[in-house]
Amino acid sequence: VQLQASGGGLVQAGGSLRLSCAASGRTVTTRGVGWFRQAPGKEREFVASISWTGGTTYYADSVKGRFTISRDNAKNTVYLQMNSLKPEDTAVYYCARSIRLVPGRDHEEYDYWGQGTQVTVSS
To answer: Which of the residues 23, 27, 51, 100 has the least number of beta carbons within 10 Å of its own beta carbon?
Structure first.
């Protein structure tokens, strides 16, 4: 499985970005997918996850109400719509495939990781 994250960039506070995670190789359509982020000097943290059907989602408290995770299994792609961005959202964002159908927040549940895409929010 190869995961390609894209869509990052520089945006002003209050702006929006949509990240994409495209999978190739073995499919991710029967697995959950998660987004994590890592800011400089900080540990990688959970952002959001979605079950293989798309019917169950989880969010970190810090992004709840601002970020929305979704997936299009026909395109083997998972999205992260990020609205009302804040400077503290600045990080490298990674997508990852879960070993579970309904993924959780623990990074140890994820076996394949994308290369990351940089999101920078200016104040």
So the answer is: 27
* 3 state DSSP class of 100: coil
- pLDDT tens figures, 76-106: 999 999 999 999 999 999 999 999 888 999 9
d(C-alpha 17, C-alpha 9), whole Å: 8
CA-based R_g, the chain, Å? 13
**Of the candidates 35, 10, 11, which has an alpha carbon nearest to the alpha carbon of residue 21?**
35
Residue that is written with structure tokens 């929010």 in the block? 121
Q: What's the CA gap between 66 and 109, in Å, rounded?
A: 24
Residues 61-65: what's their mean pLDDT?
A: 97
The backbone torsions φ and ψ at residue 28, rounded to the nearest 5 degrees and listed phi first, read -110, 5
Say which residues have a Cβ less than 8 Å from residue 65's Cβ, sequence separation at least 6: none
- Residues 119 and 7: their CA atoms lie apart, in Å, by 8
